[in-house]
Write a structure and sequence with these properties.
- The protein is α/β, with parallel strands linked by helices.
- It has 2 domains: 146 residues, Rossmann fold, CATH 3.40.50.300; 64 residues, no CATH class.
- It contains 8 helices and 10 strands.
- The strands form 2 sheets. A 6-stranded mixed beta sheet has the order 6-7-8-3-9-10, sandwiched between helices.
- Strand 9 and strand 10 form a beta hairpin.
Length: 225
Amino acid sequence: MIDLDGAAYSYGGGELLSDMSLAIVQGGFYFLTGPSGAGKTTLLKLCYAALFPTKGAIRLFGQDVTTMSRDDIAQIRRRIGVVHQDCQFIDHLSVQENIAMPLSVSGSATLAEDANLKELIAWVGLTHRAKALPPELSGGERQRAALARAIIMSPDIIIADEPTGNVDWEMSERLLTLLVELNKLGKTVVIATHDLSLIRSAKSQVQARILRISNKKLQLAGANL
């Protein structure tokens, strides 16, 4: 699904990530760890073609990102749902309207999709907040809304950048439960996190592969996390 072959990324004259090789396979569950500034967010952006490698190759669903047109990339991104670290919303639109935004952009607005939207909002536990505006939400509610928006188009892969970074442990476990449920439905999940407790909790529920960025390289982390 996502293949990195000796990929590297440089900016400002310096190399941030180097010689990365990895195959993210269908149905896998991955944690990406590493200290602040190691390049976790950059690597995730490479995985959904928001950035392009300066060396090596990255293939998304078999296509080399450097050969893709803008339209190709737009189509590929429909298959990848991203939960960004900053959870940006359009503040004058309701939670429900924000979650439905990808449907509106794609031109989809059928009755069946409207029913699916309501079901999705219920699944993330936000039915009672569907008409609220984003500034009225708590941190945990914003993260759940961001997850719902990321999966509204039923993507094959969900990429989450520090989804539990600004919420308490109870909410972290709730978000993890949702991501585990998605994985059990066959979705591939990739989570960047510095929270080892979250990783330990996940490993009791799914077979998670743990990757660590260290000294600009991507490594398989030890089993003692």
